[in-house]
């Protein structure tokens, strides 16, 4: 049976996901077969496994860091917010339905057998399991029914490391306050503290480290720096959605929809020196990009209406008319069509609304969710991005709607799904392109080809010779950089000892 370690945090976004990925990478380098586990994740960034099951993207990234195949058991419960007080519930990769927060709160303890089943499946296959908590273990109004922090640690008998974020300030209050709100039994599970996101001279921090160890009676096992690694963020709290990106010869603007999902579809562009990748929240920020990307969203109709209210739809239509490339993925693709119909009220109560009219397609929402990995090639692509023609692509589909082409509209790509069925995907008209394939830019050479095409359109071809960046190799390099940094700043010998593992 696998040995376990649990990473909990004093609050959300203290760096639990990144530390978990880094520790898993270290374990892989040390010769262990290790796996991530998060019993319950709330995020709009999801991933589709080879089996066509849905899981949190963060656990897929952690599995990648560990060098193992992502499976839904690594994240048995996924909550995808649909409103401020409700979420779609995904159990072991299967969509259960929508629940309000109160409904789910009363229901979640019935999920414990399934959570333990998933954990047991992993424990029988791996040497080590690194478990990630969620939010804080000291949410005193939620502790009684906890299935993701100390409640889970007790169920699987896992030792805990507690992480605090010094970058936000008050890290010692975070750590001490969290520990003091726990029961004596829960405190005894915490075997070490970690101060994360530190910048500066550590010797100045040392007196505080000694004091917090004395107050909490728990050793500090590391002061980890604000890490300069480029890995995918778990959710909309990530820094990638806040910044405007560095200057570049090509300007790509991603519309930051209120319910944006799977925004990691565009991360590859942020790694190309010639590209300035921006996330745009309003008309003032839109500026004059070379390419506008409409991303996926959990509520396509509501976010399309938001585009209209903000004046962004009208601005995007003007840019399309002037030849600016407009590219929609999943919900963004649906928005770009002629109409969106929801007779079964899958998305809400809108019924039917007109689309942006940029692509000759119509979308009808259905209760059955499409979830599959796909692999294939672009077709004969027209317009500015014609260099993509016949290039290979790979990714996944995850959507509720079915989209049909009008008349003889061309398709964008031909793909084979998880059932080995061949089908066409997306369409293109003029400078407008749409697809259901998440990760379509990640395949070797695709993002570079898009960049080169945009630079050619601006008359910058002499500067457009890309290096054919291998995105997969780049991510592997980043995982190794993360592991190298954590080895320097974490007491891994003590962590292995806490787990009962011999090096």
Commentary on this structure:
This protein is 30% helix and 29% strand. It is α/β, with parallel strands linked by helices and 503 residues long. Helix 1 (16-29) packs across helix 14 (471-489) and helix 6 (171-180) packs parallel to helix 8. The longest helix has 19 residues, at 471-489. It is globular, with a radius of gyration of 23 Å.
Features:
503 residues; alpha/beta; six-stranded parallel β-sheet; 15 helices
Helices and strands in order, then pairings?
Blueprint: E1 3-9, H1 16-29, E2 34-37, E3 40-42, E4 46-48, E5 54-56, H2 57-66, E6 77-83, E7 86-91, E8 94-100, H3 101-107, H4 112-123, E9 128-132, H5 150-156, E10 160-165, H6 171-180, H7 184-189, E11 190-198, H8 202-216, E12 220-225, E13 250-255, E14 260-261, E15 275-280, H9 283-286, E16 291-294, E17 296-297, H10 300-309, H11 312-321, E18 325-329, H12 331-335, E19 339-341, E20 352-354, E21 361-378, E22 392-405, E23 413-416, E24 422-425, E25 427-429, E26 432-435, H13 446-457, H14 471-489, H15 492-499
Parallel strand pairs: 1-9, 1-10, 2-9, 3-6, 10-11, 11-12, 13-15, 13-16, 16-18, 18-26, 19-21
Antiparallel strand pairs: 4-5, 6-7, 7-8, 14-17, 19-20, 21-22, 21-23, 23-24, 25-26
């Amino acid at each position: 049976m696998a040995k376990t370690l649990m990473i909990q945090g004093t609050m959300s976004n203290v760096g639990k996901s990144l530390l978990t990925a880094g520790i898993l990478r270290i374990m892989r380098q040390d010769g262990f077969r290790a796996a991530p586990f998060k019993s319950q994740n709330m995020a709009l960034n999801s991933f589709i496994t080879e089996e066509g099951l849905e899981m949190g993207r963060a656990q897929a990234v952690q599995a990648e860091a560990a060098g193992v195949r992502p499976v839904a058991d690594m994240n048995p419960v996924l909550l995808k917010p649909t409103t401020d007080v409700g979420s779609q519930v995904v159990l072991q990769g299967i969509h259960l339905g929508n629940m309000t927060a109160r409904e789910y709160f009363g229901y979640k303890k019935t999920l414990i057998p399934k959570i333990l089943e998933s954990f047991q499946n992993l424990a029988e296959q791996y040497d080590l399991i690194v478990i990630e908590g969620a939010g804080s273990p000291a949410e005193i109004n939620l502790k009684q029914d906890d299935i993701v922090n100390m409640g889970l640690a007790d169920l699987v008998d896992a030792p805990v490391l507690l992480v605090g974020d010094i970058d936000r300030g008050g890290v010692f209050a975070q750590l001490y306050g969290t520990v003091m709100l726990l029961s004596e039994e829960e405190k005894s599970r915490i075997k070490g503290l970690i101060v994360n996101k530190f910048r500066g001279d550590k010797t100045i921090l040392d007196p505080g480290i000694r004091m917090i160890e004395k107050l909490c009676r728990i050793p500090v096992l590391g002061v980890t720096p604000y890490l300069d690694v480029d890995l995918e963020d778990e959710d909309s709290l990530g820094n990638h959605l806040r910044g405007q990106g560095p200057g570049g010869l090509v300007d790509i603007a991603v519309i930051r929809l209120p319910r944006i999902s799977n925004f990691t579809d565009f991360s590859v562009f942020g790694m190309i020196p010639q590209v300035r990748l921006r996330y745009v929240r309003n008309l003032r920020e839109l500026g004059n990009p070379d390419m506008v990307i409409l991303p996926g969203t959990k509520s396509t109709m509501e976010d399309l209406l938001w585009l209209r209210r903000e004046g962004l739809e009208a601005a995007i239509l003007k840019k399309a008319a002037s030849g600016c490339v407009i590219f929609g993925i999943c919900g963004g693709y649906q928005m770009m069509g002629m109409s969106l119909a929801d007779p079964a009220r899958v998305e809400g109560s809108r019924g039917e609304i007109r689309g942006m009219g940029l692509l000759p397609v119509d979308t009808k929402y259905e209760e059955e969710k499409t979830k599959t990995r796909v692999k294939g090639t672009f077709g004969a692509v027209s317009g500015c991005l014609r260099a993509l023609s016949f290039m290979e692509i790979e990714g996944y589909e995850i959507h509720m709607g079915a989209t049909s082409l009008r008349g003889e509209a061309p398709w964008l790509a031909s793909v084979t799904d998880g059932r080995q069925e061949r089908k066409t995907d997306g369409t293109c008209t003029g400078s407008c392109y749409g697809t259901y394939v998440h990760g379509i830019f990640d395949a070797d050479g695709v993002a570079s080809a898009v960049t080169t095409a945009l630079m050619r359109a601006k008359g910058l071809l002499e500067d457009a010779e890309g290096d054919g960046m291998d995105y997969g190799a780049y991510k592997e390099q980043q995982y190794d950089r993360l592991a190298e940094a954590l080895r320097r700043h974490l007491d891994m010998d003590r962590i292995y000892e806490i787990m009962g593992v011999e090096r």
